[in-house]
Fold this sequence. Notes:
elongated, 14 helices, mainly alpha, two-stranded antiparallel sheet, 4 strands
Amino acid sequence: MTQFEFFLTLAPLLAATVIIVAGYAWFQAHSPLSRTLTVYLVMVAGFLIAGILELVSISEEMVDLWVRIQYLFMPFIPVLWLRMALLYTGQIQWAALRRLWIFFLLPTVTSLLAWSNTQHRMVWVEHHWQPVGQWGYFSIEKYGPWFWANGIYFYCLLIYGALLMVLEVQRSPRIFRQQSYSMIAGALLPLTMNLVYIFDLFPSLVIDFTPLAFAFSGLAFVLSMLRHRLLSLSPVGRAALIESMLDPMLVLDDAQRVVDLNPAAQRFLGIALEDSLGRP
């Protein structure tokens, strides 16, 4: 199976799944985190569908069109990821749109420049449609200065959101740490795939798999949140609730070993959290 066949087999399935999951998240929960996650998934689906149509297009004009359409979605995904990270870690005041709107300015400029690139060559300088058998792809020989500016911004937002998650892991009750790890990995996967493509680390890889990586990340976020019933309440909110409970709460794994207990349980049992973890 060629990389084209692999992408065009997996991408439509992922796009359909992402759209279904986005609809579920929208109607099942009404928290700012779930709403932001829904918009994130919609943007990822748009990015992915445009990437599919780029590959199946049979003319350079159509390929060029679908590449530009991808720029209606892709630049905004890192900003939505940052807002999810802020909401997830309880920084509600910074996640408010009245403060965060400024972060959408650069992606908006990027989209406008991509659509008018023939006039200034700020996003890509040299490119052509490269046919490969029955397929074809948009090959960029030289990127423009704005592409690199947007790329740095893109990576900074993803990394900063991941750092917020790392700090949250240190403060979170044990039962929420696996979810935080999943979201950190979800941010780093698209970043890694994009770096591989942009810097041509594998010359034989001519397709940008970043849309697939974002789709996998979005689905991983949703599955992790559903597992802990967190679509309607952020982990910070649930963690605060558990930590402040007057009643003891003990969490056991499938082998009946202690994986977490709140301060009330520690006082009741007369044992510290670090001394109880892993005990039957």
